[in-house]
Amino acid sequence: MIDGLRLTGRFLLLVALTLAAAGTPSLAVAQQPNLLIFAAASLKNALDEINGLYAAQKSQKATTSYGASPTLAKQIEAGAPADVFISADLDWMDYVAQRDLIKADTRANLLGNAIVLIAPANRAQPLAIAPDFPLAQALGNGRLAMADPASVPAGKYGKAALEALGVWRAVAAKIAPAENVRAALLLVSRGEAPLGIVYATDAVADPNVKIVGRFPPNTHPPILYPIAVTASSRHPGAADYLAFLKSPAARPVFEKHGFMLLD
Fold first, then answer.
1. What is the pTM (predicted TM-score) of this model?
2. CA 195, 196, 200, 201 torsion: positive or negative?
3. Which of 30, 103, 207, 224 lies at a C-alpha separation of 20 to 30 Å from 141?
């Protein structure tokens, strides 16, 4: 009787071990942590939608932290556990690259964009953007909302354009610098600023603003969004996520939101 119980116990143990071994792969997949993406604030609408597609098609979730590119780059430098970095300009991707904080062979230019002049939708008046155009006069006693021109990519592009057009000095004292481009957009959307400079994609995302002018591409450096896997990332899905952003599945979403997907 005792031998029979021992045999039965061994058999049950063997079955349990076999089932556990068989269940291990699926358990590992289920417990795979979310990818952590650090992305420029202007990408929020498009990337939220793409992340939904990615989760549905790949059974892998991506959590995204949005912010100004310099803020994100410095968080990565400080050891933040990001898997992928998407910057709104080359300078801040260069910043992390020079510090060996990205995997160089994964770096690529993903998207293009443009900058525009916006106003609250209920009082928008077209303003032809040309050399020496009357921007200061259009502002009146109000301020020009834009991302901080000292460091944030959208602000740097805006300042470069205004300098090229010869109007920066006239409005430099009237700037309302924002932490990132979405914060600048919000100032205009709420009517707290009569005009603002944002990406074309931001203007499309908010029905409370209208584009009143477009800055010629030759007035500022090309607006490029580079991407890369961070050097600290050990997530097996990071490279696959980058490939998905470049894929035909992501292209129509980026284009719907006004981005140009670069080949």
1. 0.81
2. negative
3. 207
